[in-house]
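## retry 2 of 3
previous attempt timed out at serialization; input unchanged, resubmitting
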Amino acid sequence: MRKYSVSELVLVVDIGNTNIVCAIYQQGSAIWTSRFQTIRERTSDEYYSLLANLLQDIKLADINFVAFGSVVPELSRIWKHLIAKYMTAEIYDVNGLSPLGFTFKATSPQTIGADLIANAYAAWRKYQQNVIVIDLGTATTIQVISSAGVFEGAIIAPGLKTGASNLFSKAAQLYELELISPPALLGKNTHDAVLSGVVHGHALMLETFITKLKLQYIDYAPMLTILSGGMASLLKPLIASADIIDKNLTLDGFYMAFDKLSQINN
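## retry succeeded, writing output
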């Protein structure tokens, strides 16, 4: 395997159920990011054309390393075919079996999603304290990781948008609305009532989970609560116990995991 230098370009590929997020890292920081919709029917050639056009001045052929994580098995195969066809890069697959130094309380680490592993690793390494990590994506995930690298477990709930879409599809008299901060707890019309139920309902669920986790893991006090994901900015003001937003947590986690794995392999 080639020895990695931080001056080299690293492509991070995070394949989720709703979006695929890609980033280029150099010198430990993201210098380019892009997000596009997850479409299972696209071929590797179609994804290559999309990615190559978005990269502009950076050529995929010049990238020697890929930090890869996916929760969509069929797209894992397509993207790995893309990388093999158009690049000469070494792929570092980040998953629950990657030797990152975690101690798992989970019974089957191999079943833990790559995004959860990336979030946990980034939170552990970046903040170096006991943390609750909440990622607000297609699903809302909640994890507890200790400062010693103990991965206690996770909670997976329907995401804010996922839950809202399900409500709209089941109620004939309701219509989809833009998810923004509700003007009041009690809505004065149907629009504001639905908005409050969806947004405040999710915030209250998370506040309750945070409170219960802090009580259950009292020995981990104080615990830093980190929000990440697309809905973090909307919900942060409504969750009193949320401490910070780290929108790059997942991408940073994949890159940091790659950095760790590359050191082990060399």
